[in-house]
Amino acid sequence: MGEWKTVIGLEVHAELETDSKMFSRCPVVDSVEAAPNSAVDQLSLGMPGTLPVINRQAMEFGIMVGLALNCEIPPVNQFARKNYFYPDLPKGYQISQYDRPLAVNGYVTIELEDGAAKRIRVRRAHMEEDTGKLSHFLGGSLVDYNRAGVPLLEIVSEPDMYSADEAARYARKLRSILRYLGVNSGDMSKGVLRFEANVSVMRESDDELRERTEIKNLNSIRNMVKAIEYEVRRQIKLYHSGQTVMPATLGWDEAGQRIQVQRYKERADEYRYFPEPDLPIVEVSREWVSEIRGKLPALPDELQRRFVEDCGLSAAEAAVLTAERAVAGYFQAVVACGADAKSAANWLTTELFRLMNSYEIEREDIDSIPISARSFAGLLALAGDNVINQGTARKRVLPAMWETGKEAAAIVEEEGLAQVSDATLIGDAVERALEANQDMVRRYLEGNDKVINAIFGRIMGELRGKGDPGVVRQQLTERLKRLNDQR
User: Fold this and answer.
1) Residue 154's domain spans which residues?
2) Residues 58 and 13 grouped into a single domain
């Protein structure tokens, strides 16, 4: 397949977490957990005579996203009617934006597998209302209109991604930005964030793009990757057999792990777009844009730069810590409590993440763990000051803090875990270990240097893991040197 090049553009639909729907006061609810059709009104149901009113909060959220994606915010945008007939669209049209969108000409920077940075252009981001949700059964279909009218931001990229991996990296970056802004939860299992992939292939010698297909409603990044890779293979196979790729709307059959053709692709003019007569043109003043820009939080790219420049972290460490806003906030809080940044990053991304995984807690939910940032910083201080050694801190104190909610210092005091640094006590333990492990000593003196680690382990065991590793290692090395000199 080396002679073929994959070309991908993504359309991302993000529900905005406003209090009410896009064009009415009807509340926004969790469309999965709420009872079907429990959050609907006349406008959601497309009743005759109803008039839409633009949700200002939704517009502000949309502009926030546009600014975060480095977009231009045009001074004028306008809503339009997108006409099509489907049971989840009770009015027979969707209020969307067409030729005057909310934001244009932006970009997102992703990091490729080799560490290189790549800019993915964002063509536009426009506001619209979501549709209802259909559930299909053997005997028919049911529709839930709770989701109908929820503010929806559609973000359209240029066809700048050349592999499923690049598409996945762009999707994750975009999801992270939306979560940082607090405008979307990123929970794809509930459909609040949905991807649609436009996929085509071309020969390296082609001068222009070939026909594309669109894979609709991908509900996870993993499924998106599988669907894109499947579609790429399908298109190449068609071309090799002398056939052509027809523009079509596709679906991903998760159970069968295959692409299904749903319908042949509509043209834009088949939607019969025209300006929404019941809504005014929206004038976006530069003062309003400046006000919204001032509300933007530090985003992943900015935090990564700060963590590298101000905290001395590696780019890889900074990327892990900034992938989720909650994790970045927790790390910053730990450092604000006096912890060394490098130590905090290492402990957080290894020991704390490992503990969270064992309790099946997602990283985005780090604020719910029973160890506060201040308590975590307290543990790092004890380990950094050699009050307890690293092994005791990791294996005994941190798990005990999780289970009991107690501070590290209290656990160390109650369980007598303070590190033994007294040279005399450690020297006595070294002598006892050498006496009890004569065979290991003999092998070491015969040139097997690795045996010293086993002897070290026996000494630490006798000290119940509380010995200062540096002092133990020094005492052991000196004693073995004397034995070697006496031979």
Assistant:
1) 4-292
2) yes
d(CA 385, CA 344): 14
Given a cut of 70, the residues of the chain with pLDDT beneath it are 1-2, 265-269, 419-428, 462-468, 472, 475, 484-487
Both 262 and 336 in one domain: the answer is: no
- If asked whether residues 334 and 446 sit together in one domain, one would say no
Domain match, 152 and 222 both: yes
pTM: 0.84
User: Do residues 100 and 182 both lie within one domain?
Assistant: yes
Report the pLDDT value the prediction gives residue 269, as an integer from 0 to 100.
61
Distance in angstroms (rounded) separating the CA atoms of residues 78 and 90: 22
Kindly state whether residues 372 and 388 are assigned to the same domain. yes
